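Subject: sequence -> structure tokens, single chain

Hey, anyone have a minute? Need the predicted structure for the following. Not urgent.
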Amino acid sequence: MAKRKLLILGTTDCIDFMDAEIENLPCKIDTGAAISAIHADRIRIIEKNGVDYLAFKLLDKKHPKFNNKEILTNDFTEKRIKNSFGEAENRFQVKLKIRVFDKIYNSSFTLTNRKQMTYPVLLGKKFLKGKFLVDVSQQNLSFKSKK
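Reply:
Had a minute. Here:
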């Protein structure tokens, strides 16, 4: 059985969020987090024709990459997550298309308020597993590889 070559990521990078039309969004590669997370604002459930949709905007008005684009999906779940302070909180989880090393992935993210954090995005183990190795001496390898 041939082994798949894993790409190398550093401790940080800049990735693209296709659904929100946001490019080069700074992220932290977090091997301590199980699930990836992104800063979101105006998170709410809307009912249309008897179907519940989750509406949200990535980032917030104060973030330089904020573009005010609302994302609407009926493919969402609610999860109980332990945050970085060890406190349990309920978060919505959605699938978002992201681009890393010029390849598009459909990956799960929990939506949370990260405006006080250095990085608006964390890429966790579930996304990294089987695709990437992390070299802690490197940074922004995907971003630097863009043409």
